[in-house]
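Q: Here's a chain of 338 amino acids. Please give me its 3D structure as C-alpha cells.
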Amino acid sequence: MSKLRGLQSIEFTKCPAIIGHEAVVGKKEGEGPLKAYFDHVVQDELFGEKSFEYAERKFYKTAVELACKNAGLHTADIRYLLGGDLLNQIISAGYAARDLQIPFLGLYGACSTMAQSLLLGSVLIDGGYADTAACAVSSHFASAERQYRFPLELGNQRTPTAQWTITGAGCTILSDEKEANLCITGATVGRVTDYGITDANNMGAAMAPAAANTILCHLQDFGRTVQDYDLIVTGDLGSVGLQLLKEILTQAGINTDSRFQDCGCMIFDPETQDVHAGGSGCGCSAVVLNGYLLKKLKEGAYKRILFCATGAKLSTTSSQQGESIPGIAHAVVIERVK
C-alpha cells in the first residue's frame, strides 16, 4: 500500500514511536514562560568551555545523551543520529557526532531542521531501515550572532522585527517500538518559497509564506481541516511572522483560531524579556517540542498536533550579494495514541 499522500505528504503506516526526548537550554530560556518544563537549564552560556561554538557543541551532545537516558538506552544503542545546527558546515552537530560515535546523517534545514530530522528519521523507522534514531539540533545566541550578524562586542542596536536566537538543544529518540504513547503518523515536505524579503533582521516575514504553503498543502493532502488538530505550532516565526502567517491563511479561507501558535512566541515573555519579535534558531522549535509540547501530549492536554518548523535559507554570502531570503517549512503529525 502506498504511503504517499497528495502532492508532498507521507503517511507512516508503522507509526514511528517517540520513546525519549530532552531539551537543554540556556539561562535566558530557563527564565521564560516554559521554565517549569525545562529540566536542564545551563546558567553559564559558555557551559564551561572556551568559546560559544564549543559550548553549543556541548549543548548538542548533552541533549542527545540525556534523551537516550530518558528512553532507557545508551548512545551505543542508537542506529543513526540525524540533525544539524546553524553554523557553517554544521560543526556543532558534526563534532558532537564525532564524540558520540553514533552513525551520523548531517542535515541543514536552517531553523526547520528539527522537523526535517523527525521526518527523515520517521522514514527510516517506517521503512524498516532503522530500529532507533536520534533526531537532534542546536543553536546558540552568541555563536549565531557573530556568524550571521555582528560580534556582540559591537553592541549594535536591534531592529523591532529582529528575533533572539535560542541557546539550547533538543533531541527526540524514535523507535520501531509498538507499545508507545506518542507516535509520528504523517509528514509534509515543504517547498522553498521566496517572496523577495531581503532584510536579514526580519526572518519571520521571509518564513511565513513557506509555513502557509506547507500547512495548506498538508491539509489538502490528508483531507483534513484545522479542527482535526489540537495545535498547529510553527517553528520560529516570532510575533511578526505569526501575524503574517495568519493573514495569508485567512486569505486562503482558513480560520486561524487559538490553535495556531509559534515556538518563537511561546518561549519568551515579551513584557519582561527584551527579545523584540521573539525567539528563533534551530534550537527554538527543538527545545519547545522536546521540553514542552511532548510533555503536554503525554499529559493528555493534546491528542494530535502539527509541528511545522520553519527555516530561513540565507547565509552571510547570499546577504552580501544582495540575494533575497528563501523560506522552508516541514511538518510532522505527532499523536498521543494511548
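Q: Can you summarize the key feature?
A: The chain has two domains: 15-175, 182-336.
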